């Protein structure tokens, strides 16, 4: 008789299965990511003389997520984010895990963006994300009986933003959405479904032409 193998909430989160966001491991990883994000955000203090290269090192440390190593299984590589060349991220910036972010070349991300990266968030090269944009990879609950505060379960779904995309300020992009290459999302839009490439979307919920 086969004994079912134990799967951590992190493994479930990364595979799109129901997981508990407030498991000890995930709380610890979010706290360690928060520390790396704090160091990056505070590098912009005008009283400090920090070069662009030093800021890039601090941001890369968020995506490298070396705190992952203590939870990695023998023979398995821990997840790790990707950062392309000539990426500019304004502060303050916020993300939860870091290792679920993939950002291509020549991307710019405006101030006060929040990347809630329980699932993978990928942004293609030459794309622009305006100020105060929220990208949330946790699906909205559909069962009222399952609402149990910090004892709840959640499901994460990847968000993909293609190349040469413009996302206006104050937009919200919800879990599972794919935005095609060359799309333009007007400021303040709430994107709840896929947006094809080379089109313009606006509104709540966002519709495209």
From TrEMBL:
InterPro entries named in the record: Hexapep, Hexapeptide_acetyltransf, Mac_dom, Trimer_LpxA-like_sf
One GO MF term attached to the UniProt entry: acetyltransferase activity
Pfam entry (one): Hexapep_2
Keywords noted in UniProt: Transferase
Maltose/galactoside acetyltransferase domain boundaries: 10-68
Family (UniProt): Belongs to the transferase hexapeptide repeat family.
PANTHER family assigned to the protein according to its UniProt record, in alphabetical order: SIALIC ACID SYNTHASE-RELATED (PTHR23416), ZN(II)2CYS6 TRANSCRIPTION FACTOR (EUROFUNG) (PTHR23416:SF76)
Identification of the protein by name: Trimeric LpxA-like protein
Organism per entry: Periconia macrospinosa
